[in-house]
Design brief:
It holds the Pfam family Fungal_trans_2. InterPro entries: Fun_TF. The protein has 252 residues and is mainly α. It is 56% helix and 0% strand. The protein has 10 helices and no strands. The chain is globular. The protein starts with a helix and ends in a 9-residue tail after the last helix. The relative contact order is 0.12.
């Protein structure tokens, strides 16, 4: 993946390649949720300056360029020792103000049946993008700020996230490549009640039964491993300790 850096940087001069750059970079950026200092990928210059604030949802990845850029910043911050809290709060403010949108470029040239399909696709795509936004908020709180999952305000975000995940179909033409595995993984790396564990299990069981994606089973296995024990030596919570057994995962 590191060999892609010069190519992605060069392609930023061609705006029409944005979707392809997003897709290529997302593989490395999202997999870094379980990466260690030794096996993480380098930072990718995959967006031009103006593209870093685009909030339009990308059809190939299910999230906006701005959000993918924020996630990459979170990954970098995880291995940074200075001013972590200040930068984390800045990123959280950006996330709170982020409004990802679907833009229909084909106008009104639809039959009635096509219009219904389009509305369903836009609705589900918007949910997918919101899953990524909520998961990124949790990612910052857990991995960067070290906050505990028992925090009441975070519980509200957790519940909203898993509710959206439960509403998404696991298959179909719009979901073979964009079902949000990364948010499901982020949600799973935390302490859960038995009820929350049951909700996760139902979600991944539905995925295993219906999806043809080859990376589903390794992610499910990692989630199951994490769910079996997440306490540190002193009863605390550490992201790196929870994910240490996962290795590098494909979360796209």
């Amino acid at each position: 993946m590191s060999a892609l850096e010069p190519l992605l940087k060069y392609a930023t001069s061609s705006p029409e390649t944005l979707g392809y750059r997003m897709k290529l970079a997302s593989h490395a950026i999202l997999s870094a949720a379980a990466a260690t200092e030794n096996d993480r990928f380098p930072t990718f210059s995959f967006l031009s300056g103006k593209e870093e604030t685009i909030q339009r949802i990308d059809a190939l990845t299910g999230l906006s360029p701005e959000l993918l850029s924020i996630i990459q910043s979170c990954n970098n911050l995880a291995f940074q020792s200075s001013n972590r809290k200040g930068i984390a709060i800045y990123l959280l403010n950006r996330l709170n103000n982020l409004e990802q949108v679907c833009i229909d470029t084909q106008g009104n040239s639809y039959t009635q049946a096509e219009q219904l399909l389009k509305e369903r696709a836009i609705g589900d795509t918007t949910k997918i993008a919101e899953c990524y936004r909520l998961a990124t908020i949790l990612y910052i709180h857990y991995r960067i700020l070290g906050n505990l999952p028992s925090d009441h305000n975070l519980k509200i975000i957790q519940n909203h996230l898993v509710t959206l995940l439960e509403q998404l179909p696991p298959n179909g033409q719009y979901f073979k490549a964009t079902w949000p595995l990364w948010p499901l993984f982020i949600y799973s790396v935390q302490l859960h009640s038995e009820g929350e564990k049951d909700r996760i299990k139902k979600t991944w069981t539905k995925l295993e039964k219906n999806s043809i994606r080859s990376n589903i089973c390794p992610v499910v296995e990692a989630i199951q491993t994490i769910s079996e024990g997440r306490y540190g030596s002193n009863g605390g919570f550490w992201w790196e300790e929870c994910t240490a057994s996962c290795g590098r995962l494909s979360l796209t």
